[in-house]
Structures are given as structure tokens and as C-alpha cells.
Amino acid sequence: MPRASPRYHRTVTTLAQRKRQLVATELTEAALQLLALRGFDAVTVDEIATTAGVSKRTFFRYFASKEDVVVQFLAGMGADMRAGLAARPAGERPSEALLHTVSVPLTVCGDHAERALPVVRLILRTPALLARFLEHQARWREELTEELAVRLGRDPGTDLRPRLAAGVALAAFDAVLHRWSEGEGTEDPGALIEEAFAVLAPALDATAG
């Protein structure tokens, strides 16, 4: 019996991965919208699964809980930030590189405010989710610190500047999210982060000195 080619296996694997990603995306979308609309405690896993068109058993193959859906969403945001910072030109000022890094998710939120704003409010106003959000921010700070240390040629174990710069950038990110979530959604979070960095830029660029 002829053996299947490696190319066949790669194709099958790719299709399976795409299917898993599609189901995960459907579940995430359904969960975030239901939770944002009705509140974290009012939505059941059964309702999320039904809305996504899958079984409850399928839901638990992808997520351990309702909370885990939101946590995974936040983890993806942090990975995008680090990748964004790593992709910035090596000679770019720290303030410019960090502004681009944290403005990407904020710009996406602003471009899809009708969907993103309820989710941001859900996270910031639900104690359990806010706690996980802060946990993720701590991880983002460590990841950005490591990336900044490489860019600046500094050892984060002995030099405070990379960690301070990462912390300042994320504090601005957090302040903008809170400001945006407390309003009517008419403000542009991308413009707000630029306003914040206009104030912070001198201090951030001093870290390169």
C-alpha cells in the first residue's frame, strides 16, 4: 500500500488547524458579544455554544471556562504588542517605537467601536476579568521590557530604564482604555494615545541616553 506523501500530511494538518481556528474564533466572537450585552454572570456556556453553533462539549475542548475566552483574547493582544515592537526600525526613538506598539490594538478598537467598546467595558467592570487583565498587563510589561532591553543594549537586571519605559507605555495604554470606556465611545482611542505620548515622549526618549 503506497504511503501518503509528507505534502499530503502537511495539507491535512493545515486544514485541521484552520478548522480549529475557525471554531475558536466563532466561540470567541459569540462569547464576547453575549457577555458584553448581558453581563458576565448572566451568560451560560450552553448559550455561548448554541450561539456559535457548536455543542457544549466542543466549547470545553477549546476553553476551560467563560473567563478563559476573555483571557485568551487578552493573551493574543499582548503577543501582537511584542511582535509589533520587535518589528520597529532599530534606530527609532523609544517613544516612537512604543507609541506604534501600543496604538495598534487601540486603533483596532476605535475602528470597531460598536463591537470593541462593550467588550472593553465588560473587562474593566467585571472584577474577575479585570484581575486577569492586570495579570496579563504584568506579563506584557515583562515582554516589552525584554524587547526594549535588546533594542537599547541594556541589561534589565541591572538597568531600570527598559522596565520603566515599558511600564510608562502600558500605563498610558491603560489610561486611554479607561477614558474611552467611560465615555460614549465617540472619542478616538488612537488619538488619545498620541496625546498621551506627546506628554511622555521626553521621558521615554531619555531611556536611550
Automatic annotation (TrEMBL):
Q: Which PANTHER family match?
A: HTH-TYPE TRANSCRIPTIONAL REGULATOR RUTR, MYCOFACTOCIN BIOSYNTHESIS TRANSCRIPTIONAL REGULATOR MFTR-RELATED
List residues of the HTH tetR-type domain. Answer: 21-81
Listed A to Z, the keywords are: DNA-binding, Transcription, Transcription regulation
Instruction: Read off the InterPro entries from this record.
Output: DNA-bd_HTH_TetR-type_CS, Homeodomain-like_sf, HTH-type_TetR-like_transc_reg, HTH_TetR, MftR_C
Where does the source fall among the domains of life? Bacteria
- Record bears the keyword Thylakoid: no
Task: Summarize which parts of the chain are annotated to bind DNA, as ranges.
Answer: 44-63
Q: What PROSITE patterns does this protein's entry cite?
A: HTH_TETR_1 (PS01081), HTH_TETR_2 (PS50977)
Give the originating organism: Streptomyces tanashiensis
Pfam families per UniProt: TetR_C_14, TetR_N
State what protein this is by name: TetR family transcriptional regulator
Renumbered to this chain, the signal peptide range is none
